[in-house]
Amino acid sequence: MLDYTYEDWKNRAAGLSFRGQAFIDGKFVDAASGKTFDCINPATDQVLAQVAEGDEEDINRAVAAGRAAFEDGRWSRMAPGDRKAVMLKLADLIRENLEEMALLDSLDMGKLVKDAATVDAPGSAHFFQWYAEAIDKIYDEVAPTGPGDLALVARVPLGVVGAVTPWNFPLDMATWKGAAALAAGNSVVLKPAEQSPLSALRLAELAAEAGVPDGVFNVVPGFGVTAGRALGLHMDVDCLAFTGSTGIGKMFMQYSGQSNLKQVWPETGGKSPNLIFADCEDLDAAADMAAFGIFFNQGEVCSANSRLYVERSIKDAFVEKLIARAQATQPGDPLDPASKMGAIVDEKQTQGIMRFVEEGKKSANLVAGGERVTVDGKGCFVQPTIFDDVAHDNPLARDEIFGPVLSVIPFDSEDEAISMANDSIYGLAASVWTDNLSRACRVSEKLMVGTVSVNTVDALSAQTPFGGMKQSGFGRDLSLHSLEKYTALKTTWIKYKA
Question: Model pTM?
Answer without folding.
Answer: 0.97
